[in-house]
Design a protein that fits this description.
Shape: globular
CATH topology: Porin
CATH superfamily: monomeric porin ompg
Largest sheet: 12 strands, antiparallel, barrel
CATH architecture: Beta Barrel
Number of domains: 1
Radius of gyration: 17 Å
Helix content: under 10%
Strand order of the largest sheet: 1-2-3-4-5-6-7-8-9-10-11-12
Oligomer: single chain
Number of helices: 1
């Protein structure tokens, strides 16, 4: 069992000010996208929360995301999904939280699964997230690409990169690397899945995340994890990165 939607990833955080970058609920790991994509007609509903581990003034906001992702292509070897998210925070004040004023985000992804055209072929995915049609400053327009390969015993390793709009990311800090490891812990239970993922960059996306998911039924799972943003938030430190570490819960319901 692999977590179908993060989000992750999605997984979805906005920092304050014009240095913010928004995520939307794509199929992913804990925080970053994965090479998974929904099959034709498959629907995922996700409810994600990111709660800071401290309530200090410089911690950053808590974020709450509800999203729907749908598979739209009827092919086995090439899949595509599209998604829409409602992302808000705990500030309850549009003057200090632009996300509260413009909470709707879109995402899409195309993906080729492992072994699609020859045995041993890695999975490949490319897509975009953080698409906000109401605000240029909030629309991170983050494009990404990933390849992934599952190895016996070890699990799945994914590598890739991303590039986003400088209207949302800090100047000259709008790209970085993506990496992850995930594995179903079948030695314990086929319902237990664990992952570690990382996004480089001195921006809102940069973070190291760890987590585990339990499938209560084939269609319902809950992930609990932690996000350690890179670097930690410092209001006197110039461009604002993601903030203090957060605990995340991610409920996924598949149809």
């Amino acid at each position: 069992m692999m977590k179908s939607v993060r989000t992750t990833i999605l997984a979805a955080v906005l920092t304050l000010s014009v240095a913010s970058a928004a995520q939307a609920t794509f199929s992913g790991q804990i925080w970053i996208p994965s090479t998974d994509a929904k099959g034709f007609g498959d629907v995922n509903i996700s409810i994600d929360n990111y709660i800071r581990m401290t309530n200090k003034a410089d911690a950053g906001a808590n974020y709450y995301n509800a999203g729907v992702t749908v598979g739209v292509l009827p092919f086995e070897k090439f899949k595509m999904e599209v998604g829409v998210d409602y992302l808000t925070d705990n500030l309850n004040n549009s003057s200090s939280s632009t996300s509260a004023a413009h909470p709707i985000y879109f995402n899409f992804k195309g993906a080729i699964p492992e072994d699609a055209f020859f045995k041993g072929m890695p999975s490949i995915a490319a897509g975009m997230f953080g698409l906000n049609t109401a605000s240029v400053a909030l629309s991170s327009n983050t494009a990404y690409g990933l390849i992934a390969k599952t190895f016996p015993v070890v699990g799945r390793i994914s590598l890739g990169g991303y590039n986003g709009s400088q209207n949302s990311y800090p100047s000259k800090h709008n790209n970085g690397l993506l990496a992850s490891w995930d594995r179903t812990m079948s030695e314990i239970s086929d319902k237990l899945w664990v992952a570690v993922d990382y996004a480089s960059g001195n921006n809102a996306l940069g973070a190291l995340s760890v987590g585990a998911s339990w499938a209560f039924t084939p269609n319902v799972s809950l992930l609990v994890g932690a996000n350690f943003y890179n670097p930690f938030y410092n209001p006197q430190g110039g461009a604002l990165p993601g903030g203090k570490p957060s605990i995340t819960t991610q409920l996924d319901i598949n149809f």
